[in-house]
Specification:
Elements: E1 15-18, E2 42-46, E3 49-53, H1 64-81, H2 87-98, E4 102-103, E5 107-109, E6 112-118, E7 126-131, E8 137-141, E9 152-159, E10 165-172, E11 178-184, E12 189-198, E13 200-205, E14 211-218, E15 221-228, E16 238-240, E17 249-254, E18 260-266, E19 274-280, E20 288-291, E21 298-303, E22 306-311, E23 319-324, E24 334-337, E25 343-350, E26 353-360, E27 363-369, E28 375-379, E29 386-387, E30 391-392, E31 398-405, E32 408-416, E33 422-427, E34 437-445, E35 451-459, E36 470-473, H3 488-495, E37 499-503, H4 512-517, H5 525-540, E38 549-554, H6 556-567, E39 574-578, H7 597-600, H8 606-615, E40 629-635, H9 644-656, E41 663-668, H10 679-697
Parallel strand pairs: 36-37, 36-38, 38-39, 39-40, 40-41
Antiparallel strand pairs: 1-2, 2-3, 4-6, 5-6, 6-7, 7-8, 9-10, 10-11, 11-12, 13-14, 14-15, 15-16, 17-18, 18-19, 19-20, 21-22, 22-23, 23-24, 25-26, 26-27, 27-28, 29-31, 30-31, 31-32, 32-33, 34-35, 35-37
């Protein structure tokens, strides 16, 4: 789940009654069956409907009974997955694919270049700086000594305009909360000032380096502060945020010259409403609204006194508008790049030009415009794939971007914005024979007849005889677009002879806001129907059959596969459900889930309760149903989607399934929602998932073992 934008929901009162039994909560595992979780029914009365929750006690993550059950589940999972044959072979191939050099996209400040880099022999990315593009590399922060198990990582968050002061994050495990440290880059010494561990929505160092603006999540909601270096953090003045509750996200940024402070208020994560405010720091003007009264999404960047906004206001596929901040009245706004039949996915202000990323039929392209919207051409790319965000500065003729596809590992390109010349700045050395595989895009009908696109990746000449183990994944939410990208999981799967499929479900952003709205709130069932139809199409077209079909998804994608296997348990051989949302009648009560109410709705609203309860996976598990093999994955470090969802759902499905297929939970005390893992940990976890999927679908993974090798596919 990624934080983005939102609207308020109206809430009803929940009446609770408890019926508890005082028996022991879990039993020691045996290899033949999972732990037995005790049933303690809690009955909620929601809008006149009694809803039973048999495993409410598993919501208490720190309770001794819950920890004992988690330990028993992990032991059971290990007893099932540990003996699987071929683990060493799979681990060896994953080490080849993952233990390679990795590089982050560089950014420049006053002639200094900053980037992350990890060598093949290292576990974590290190922060680096160069004086000049080809200058000597200086290591700034090495996280390897911060934790014995390499579970603590670091990342850039800001560098001052003159390139001499850096703010960086320290992250524990996979938690979203980070510690902010400031470093003098001339002396490589840390400032005494720190910002405490918290969830931040922007850290921006001032032009004079005397302080920092930051937006931090608090119990009351997000708040924007200013901290003057050398002063008491507790005395930091509150600049903005009073009255905004925890369902809002407030981002803070500075213009390129650091004259303008920009504040963005997102109404949760559904791209439905944004407010924009600015403050002229040079004139010490007031915080003034640019827009705060439109039910539309806005994202903006400022150069000089001009704000450029990407918006879906009266533009379902988005357009770019320009606002002179000296004359910001709405009747003075100018449309620079209009709405069209292609979706404007993002834009960048580099070298005095606008670089606009488009999606059309899920194909990525970039067009170039001058500041008044005159077309200046486009950028060429090596094949069908995904162009990463273009990174650069308005006053410099230089940009960096990434390109990647299913069969092409990532490369970083440097673009001379004056001449249009591209050069490869860095290329992944992942040993993968991409030219042995074929990527195709098909279109299939969903339940209501809507045509849905799907990417299929397989060996060239794959036989369509229904025998191919197939990995189907998806997302379908929050206007996020699923575009071609290299995945180690997919790479190993297809080189082992499997098929990988990725449909572009409604709820995503591939076809603009209309497509997004067709898969949210009361239309969320469309997303699940699209996914089921993808599985049926793959079977009907002889790519695979049900027992050889595995579905996988995480976060909102975990909800997707949870709904898929509860609605059509007959359709799949195996399921991997990671960091999922599953109890949709209670999700809004935990962690930051209020951000997502505009996307899903809330059971506290009587009308929304009806459509949520109809699909909520936890409430739709049926006793005696023959469910497929399932691996749930979560952990305590997930501070975004509460791991209670995976715990409760695992216990319920284990107690309910009428099949002999395993239902497992892999629960990691440090694992988070995304990222924050060392390479060795990633190798282990990815290997375990693949072993489970291969076991259940009959795919022999990495049949050539460590000998499966080759050059990374590439095209200039």
């Amino acid at each position: 789940m990624t934080p983005s934008r939102t609207l308020r929901a109206s809430f009803a009162v929940l009446a609770l009654t408890f019926v508890a039994a005082p028996a022991a909560r879990s039993a020691a595992p045996a290899a033949s069956h999972p732990p037995v979780a005790n049933v303690e029914v809690v009955r909620d009365t929601l809008h006149g409907v009694v809803v039973e929750d048999p495993y409410r006690w598993l919501e208490a993550s720190a309770a001794p009974e819950t920890r004992a059950w988690i330990d028993a589940e992990n032991a059971y999972t290990e007893s099932v997955l540990g003996p699987l044959a071929g683990r060493e072979r799979v681990q060896a191939r994953l080490e080849q694919l993952l233990k390679t050099d990795a590089q982050g996209v560089p950014f420049e400040r006053s002639g200094r270049y900053f980037y992350t880099r990890r060598l093949a022999s290292q576990e974590l990315s290190i922060l680096y700086m160069r004086q000049g593009l080809d200058g000597k590399e200086e290591m700034l922060v090495d996280p390897h000594g911060l934790s014995a198990d390499h579970s603590t990582s670091v990342g850039f968050t800001d560098v001052s305009l003159d390139g001499k002061l850096m703010a960086y994050t320290t992250r524990l495990g996979g938690q979203d909360e980070v510690l902010i440290t400031f470093m003098d880059l001339d002396t490589h010494s840390e400032l005494a000032d720190h910002l405490p561990r918290a969830r931040y929505f922007g850290i921006q160092i001032t032009a004079d380096k005397k302080g920092v603006y930051y937006s931090r999540n608090t119990a009351q909601g997000p708040r924007v502060y200013y901290h003057a270096f050398g002063t008491d953090l507790a005395q930091d003045p509150l600049l903005f945020g009073d009255g905004y509750g925890p369902e809002k996200i407030i981002g803070v940024g500075l213009s390129e010259e650091r004259r303008w402070l920009q504040i963005s208020v997102f109404y949760g994560s559904a791209t439905d409403r944004t407010e924009l405010y600015v403050k002229d720091l040079v004139a010490n003007g007031p915080i003034a609204p640019v827009v705060n009264d439109l039910a539309a999404y806005f994202s903006a960047d400022i150069v000089g006194d001009m704000m450029y906004m990407r918006t879906n206001w009266q533009a379902s596929n988005f357009r770019i508008m320009a606002v002179d901040l000296k004359h910001p009245a709405r009747d003075q706004w100018k449309e620079i790049v209009p709405n069209s039949d292609a979706v404007i996915d993002r834009f960048a202000l580099v070298g005095g030009k606008l670089y606009v990323n488009y999606l059309k039929d899920v194909a990525s392209s970039v067009r170039v415009f001058d500041p008044m919207g005159k077309s200046l051409g486009s950028i060429a790319f090596p094949s069908l794939g995904t162009v990463g965000g273009i990174n650069g500065r308005w006053d410099r003729p230089e940009a960096f971007f990434t390109f990647v596809s299913f069969h092409i590992p990532e490369a970083i390109y440097r673009l001379d914005t004056a001449t249009g010349k591209q050069t490869v700045w860095w290329r992944s050395s992942v040993p993968f024979k991409g030219d042995a595989f074929e990527v195709k895009q098909v279109w299939y009908p969903s339940k209501d007849g809507t045509k849905i696109p799907m990417f299929i990746v397989a060996r060239k000449g794959v036989k369509l005889d229904g025998s191919n183990p197939t990995l189907l994944t998806g997302y379908g939410g929050f206007s996020l677009s699923e575009t071609p990208a290299f995945s180690v999981r997919a790479a190993l799967w297809v080189e082992s002879g499997g098929v990988y499929a990725l449909p572009n479900l409604r709820g995503g952003g591939e076809f603009g806001e209309t497509w997004h709205h067709a898969g949210m709130l009361e239309k969320k069932q469309n997303v699940f129907d699209d996914f089921v139809a993808a599985a049926e199409w793959l079977i009907q077209n002889k790519y695979t059959r049900s027992e050889k079909l595995c579905i996988t998804g995480g976060s909102n994608g975990g909800l997707l596969v949870g709904a898929a296997f509860t609605q059509r348990p007959d359709l799949y051989g195996a399921v991997v459900c990671s960091v999922p949302l599953l109890d949709m009648l209670r999700y809004q009560n935990f962690l930051v889930a209020r951000y997502w109410v505009p996307e899903y709705g809330s059971a506290e609203n009587a009308d929304q309760f009806k459509f949520i309860s109809a699909y909520s996976p936890y409430q739709n598990v049926k006793k005696g149903t023959k469910y497929p093999a399932i691996l749930f994955i979560s952990g305590d470090g997930d501070t975004r989607v509460d791991p209670l969802h995976a715990r409760k759902m695992c216990a319920l499905v284990q107690a309910s399934t009428g099949s002999d297929k395993p239902v497992l939970l892999r629960y990691d005390a440090k694992a988070g929602h995304s990222g924050g893992r060392s390479v060795s940990k990633t190798v282990h976890d990815t290997g375990e998932e693949l072993m489970f999927m291969g076991w259940q679908t009959g795919l022999t993974l990495a049949p050539g073992g460590a000998a499966t090798n080759g050059k990374a596919a590439s095209k200039e």
